[in-house]
Amino acid sequence: MTTHVEPGDSGTPLTLRIVQIVLFTFLAYLVIGMQLAVLPPFVHDDLGFGAVLAGLVISTQYVATLLSRGFAGRTSDTAGPKRAALIGLLACAVSGLLMIAAALLRESRIASVGVMLVARLALGMGESCVATGCIMWGIGRVGAEHTAKVISWNGIATYGALAVGAPLGVVLTHAAGFASIGVAAVALMLLALLLAWRRPAVRVEGGERMPMHHVFGRVAPYGMGLALGSVGFGVIATFITLYYASQGWAGAAPTLSVFGVCFVGVRLVLGWTIAYFGGYRTAMVSLLVECAGLIVLAMANHPGVAMLGAALSGIGFSLIFPALGVVAVERVSGSNRGAALAAYSVFIDVALGVTGPLGGWIASGGRYGPMFVVAAMMSLAAVVLTGSLYLVYGNKANG
User: Who's near 365: CB < 8 A, 6+ residues apart?
Assistant: First the structure.
């Protein structure tokens, strides 16, 4: 991919150029995070609906994200990643406006939840366009040789924003009511649109556009590795609280925090290993570390041991997405890399979508250890798959 160099770019540090773009990812995911902690109680307690509908309101966003990945990728490839990011930010702003409307309609329960579902659909589309657009925009600014670094920083922005957004949403709701979530979302997205509009676009890569199903076929093996490696994250995020409760332990929330700190820390400190050792080898080591962490979690007889397992899992999971993502996008030409990244991202959407019911079924007897063992075995399967891909393609790409 050809790098577009804006005036003065040569004197701007590489990391700053990346951060200037992934800032928009951070602002979009801040909006997403603010809703996560306050939507279920609003639907359940304020509107009086059951837990199933409260869960449906949350999951609607993920469905929209999954279904709009292809649009986000193709828009990045044909109209440019800046255009895709702007569309995504605008969709997030529309979601905020609809959330205000849902709050104002709270006396009419059906209308309120209906508007909220539309808002979540808009937010899901916005998420996919911002995520794909910002990664490809960042790569366009600094060059394809820094793909891993851009993906890593985008992930830091994503998870950092979710960590900040959830408590911020609770504070805003308590201070100014549910409508303040929508007001904050609109304000943040207007700021993001203004800043993004002023940032230079990058050149759209010329060349043949492969049909989406061909692109999907190229990246599917890497996406399968990502999906298998994401199950561990899914079961920790979904079930760690229930696991601690079943053992009579306190400290589930700090354990999640330790997982997140380790995840972000590894991306900041060890992100360079992907470029140095190659995506395949970095992914295999990361998957083995994650597997070890999940086994420690499964065998833990003390909350401190479980926290160690979560820490190892966070360390291992941290680099899986960028490591496999780098080699996945290399399987297509520069003119199809946005579509490839979008297709690759579908696999983590699906993996996290099925982890809840699958993990719940395995742990239906109240025993959570076997669930972590299954997740560990999936990480091992991903190691085998990645090793096989390395034998076939790794030497050609120098790892």
Answer: none
**Which residue carries 């509009």 as its tokens?**
197
146, two tokens: 């820094």
Amino acid identity of residue 123, one-letter, is L
Mean pLDDT of 297-302: 93
**pTM exceeding the 0.85 threshold for the entire prediction:** no
Rounded Cα gap, residues 346 and 66, in angstroms = 6
Q: Which residues contact 309 (CB under 8 A, 6 or more apart)?
A: 293, 294, 295, 296, 297, 298, 300, 372
Tens of pLDDT along 221-273? Answer: 999 999 999 999 888 877 887 888 888 998 887 888 888 889 989 998 998 99
Half-sphere exposure (CA, 13 Å, Cβ side) for 226? 25
Q: Rg of the Cα trace of the chain?
A: 21
Which tokens belong to 257?
């925090």
207 backbone φψ class: left, alpha, beta (φ>0; ψ -120 to 50)? left
